[in-house]
Amino acid sequence: MAFVEELRTGNFSLYGQWLALLSGVLLIVLGSVTFLAHVIFSILAIVFGVICIIIEIPLLMKLFPTGPGFDRAFGGLKNHWWRFVAYLVFAIVMWASLAKGGGILAIGAVTVTMAAGCYLIAAVKKQSKITTTMLGGTGVQSHYFDTRNAVPV
């Protein structure tokens, strides 16, 4: 499924994934840029950015296996509610950086807030968890072509 087709699905889980990936990249870049001016918030931004990327790329979650205790407590971060809470905490910390003069980190705060909002909407609507096929996810099932019994060429 192409990127544009995925965006047309109306599934906020998919929108949340893309916004979280954008947030991860922005937080790493902006945290690196502002490192000397705002050391603590820059380190937090870089850590949050790495966590966003690890959580949202299915292949990376397989590289960092979790234990049964973690899976019981957090559902392996596959649940929309847990992702909403995690990104909301990240957003609150990044918004707090504005109080200390971390102006450019607000860009990361905006995108993390939007990702949290998308996961909140997906949770409230009880939408299924869908990940983009471009990053090794399941994608959106097509209603027009059934590939379950397809034979490789």
Structure write-up:
With 153 residues, the chain is mainly α. It is built from 7 helices and no strands. It has helices spanning 3-7, 12-33, 39-56, 58-63, 68-74, 80-96, 105-124. Helix 2 (12-33) packs antiparallel against helix 3, helix 2 runs antiparallel to helix 7 (105-124) and helix 6 runs antiparallel to helix 7 (105-124). The chain starts with a helix and ends in a 29-residue tail after the last helix. The relative contact order is 0.20.
Largest sheet: none
Number of distinct beta strands: 0
Helix amount: 55-70%
Count helical runs.
7
Keywords for this entry:
single chain; 153 residues; mainly alpha; 7 helices; 62% helix
Please outline the helices and strands.
Layout: H1 3-7, H2 12-33, H3 39-56, H4 58-63, H5 68-74, H6 80-96, H7 105-124
Helix pairs in contact: 2-3, 2-7, 3-6, 6-7
Outline of the structure:
The protein is mainly α and 153 residues long. It has helices at residues 3-7, 12-33, 39-56, 58-63, 68-74, 80-96, 105-124.
